[in-house]
Amino acid sequence: MTVRRTIHAVRAVGAVLRKPAPWDGAQLFGRFAVAAVGSTVLTLGMLAFDDRTLGAESIWLKPLKFSVSFAVLFATLGYVARRLSDPWCASWTVATAGIASAAAFIFEMAYIVAQAARQEPSHFNESTPFHAFMYGLMGIGASTLMAVIALMGIVAWLDAGARFGKGARLGIWLGFLLTAALTSWVAGELAGNGGRYVGMPGDPHARLPFLGWSREVGDLRPAHFLALHAMQVLPAAGYALDRLGADARFVWIGAISYALLTASVFTQALQGVPLIGA
After folding, report:
1. Alpha carbon of 69 to those of 24, 72, 109, 229: distances in Å?
2. Residue 41 CB: number of other CB atoms within 10 A?
3. I want to staple 46 with a disulfide (CB 3.0 to 4.6 A). Which of 4, 60, 72, 241 is the partner?
4. What distance in Å separates the CA atoms of residue 227 and residue 186, rounded to the nearest whole number?
């Protein structure tokens, strides 16, 4: 009786989660992927014509990097949503995920661009109560995105009718959950550290091109980068295994290895050692 009741409860929850919404979640993700690409083009133009700097970097480099990151994020979420079965793709669950991530995208990009235009930092800027409040809202936006990523990974795993091979399905589930967990871990340390560096860099030009990672001191951003992109790397590995006809369980090995690599890079930064020395 207990097992039967549990099965009925799971089915009831599933029916609620699959309740149809008036919006198509896959279309929402796709539209905002296009919007992020448009933001990338615009910030590239600003980068070319506005030579103002903040520190040793162009004021438009951060908006550019965030635009690219959002474009990749929404393209990934949109691909997964399109491969779900029709009931899940048209569900309130996926539509809510799309709306929540879109709201976070609009707010974060608006504030980052506004601060860049004012030649002021957006991150780790608590110089006034207003800036502290906005930085806190950015943290809420980032947490919302992590929740959306975890939710979409779970949906892809639960959806028996999703058009994924075994390896790709496992890669999406593990990759999305790893991104949510590892990014929250690294971002928490970043916020607690009050900045991206562990140590005090002396030469503002001793950085990796474009990425801006320090070559003098520990920099927490490489670990953050790895954490963010588990959601692309592991699904791609799973897809490759499917194409090769290999055992999907190898994705578990990839997930464990990826998590260990991220933890190793993170630990190295916490010790004040740069990823690549000058």
Report:
1. 23, 5, 11, 10
2. 10
3. 60
4. 8
| Token pair 């399905």: residue | 169
Token reading at 74: 């929404």
**Closest by CA position to 251, among listed 184, 157, 163:** 157
**160-164: long-range contacts at Cβ-Cβ below 8 A with a sequence spacing of 24 or more?**
160/85, 161/84, 161/85, 161/86, 161/87, 161/88, 162/83, 162/84, 162/85, 162/88, 163/83, 163/84, 163/85, 164/83
**Token pair of 206 as six digits:** 């001793």
For the packed helices 250-270 and 230-244, what is the interaxial angle rounded to 10 degrees? 150
- Which amino acid, one-letter code, is at 213? W
CA distance 89 to 21: 9
What is the CA 81 to chain-centroid distance, rounded? Answer: 16
For helices 25-49 and 92-117, the axis angle rounded to 10 degrees is: 10
- The contacts of residue 225 (CB under 8 Å, 6+ apart) are 211
Tokens 């593990």 identify what position?
A: 174
Task: Please give the structure tokens belonging to residue 163.
Answer: 């058009």
Burial of 272 (0-12, 13-18, 19+ CB in 10 A): middle
Main-chain phi, psi angles of 198, to 5 degrees: -115, 95
Walking along the chain (278 residues) 10 residues at a time, the average pLDDT comes out as 53 57 80 95 92 87 94 96 90 91 95 94 90 92 96 93 93 97 90 79 74 82 94 96 91 96 93 80
C-alpha 232, offset from chain centre: 10
Record the pTM: 0.90
**CA-CA distance, 43 to 95, in Å (whole number)?**
28
